[in-house]
Amino acid sequence: MFRFLALRAGRAILTLLICVSAVFIALRLAGDPADIMLSIDTPPDVRAYYRDLWGLDQPLHQQYLRYLLSAARGDFGASFADDRPAFAAVLEALPKTALLGTSALLLALLVGLPLGVLAALRHNSVVDRLAMASAVFGYAIPIFFLGILLILLFALKLRILPSAGSDTPAHLILPMVTLGLPLAGRLARFARTSTLEVLGKPFIRAARGRGVMPLSVIIRHALPNASVPLLMFLGIEIGGILAGSAVVETIFAWPGVGRLLVDSVATRDLAVVQAVILTITVIMISANLLVDILHILIDPRLGGFRQAGGARA
Fold first, then answer.
1. Mean pLDDT across 283-290
2. Ordered domains of the chain (ranges, CATH)
C-alpha cells in the first residue's frame, strides 16, 4: 500500500507540474493581458507601469520560475481585475461548484444506477430497450443545448423555475438537471454492462442453484461485485463534472469555479486562471487517488496483488 501511494503521489506531482506549465505557456502565448485589461488610449507610461506591476515585462522563463517559486510558497498571485489574491477568488467560488457537482452526482446515482440495473435484470426485453434508449438520449444531447431547452420550457414558457442566479434552492434545479442527466445516461449504460457481466459469473449461478432468493442474489452478490467497476467509472467522471460545470455555470449565471474560469480566460486574468486550473487538477487527482484506495479496500485480490508486489520489491 505504501509503495502504491508513493507512486501515485509522484505521478500527482508530475501531473500538476505538466498542467501548470501547459496553462502558463498557453495563456502567455495567447496575447498580452495588458491589451485586454487596459483601453486602447492608455498612455504608454501607464501601460509600462502595469506591465511592470504584473511582471509581464520580464522574459517568459523568468515569469515561469517566479510563478513556480511563488506557488510553492502558497502565493498564486493577485487578480489583474480587482487585485485580490487569486486563490481567494477560487475559494470563494468553490462551494458553489461543489454544491452543483454533488447535487448532479446524486441525481445521476438516483436515476442512472437503478435504470441500468433494471435494464440488466430485464435483458433484451422492452424495459431494457426503453431504458437504454432513454440513457442514450440523456448522454447524447449536448449540455449547452439541454440547458437552453430547460430555460425555454421551465423559465420562459411555464415560469416556474428561475433561469439564473444562486439565491434560493430553486435556482439549483435547472443547473443540477442539466449537469446530472447526461451523467445519469452514461452511468445507466455502464451499470447495465457491469451488472450483466456479474450476473453471468459462476458464483451467481451457484447461488441460484442453492435456492437463494432472487432479490438476495442481486443485493448480496451481484450489486457488491458490480460496484467495483462503477466506482472506477465515477472517479473518471469527476473530470466530466468539473468540465461540464464550466458550461452549465455560464449558461445559468451560477457563480462557481467554472464561470470564474470562463470569465478569467476572457479577460486574460492569468493569476486566477492558473489558480483555477491548479485547484481543478488537485481535485481530480485527489478524487482518483481516493477511488484507487477504495478499490484496493473493496477488492481483496487487488490488495493482495499490491502487497505481494511490495514484498517482492
1. 82
2. 12-73 (no CATH), 95-301 (1.10.3720.10)
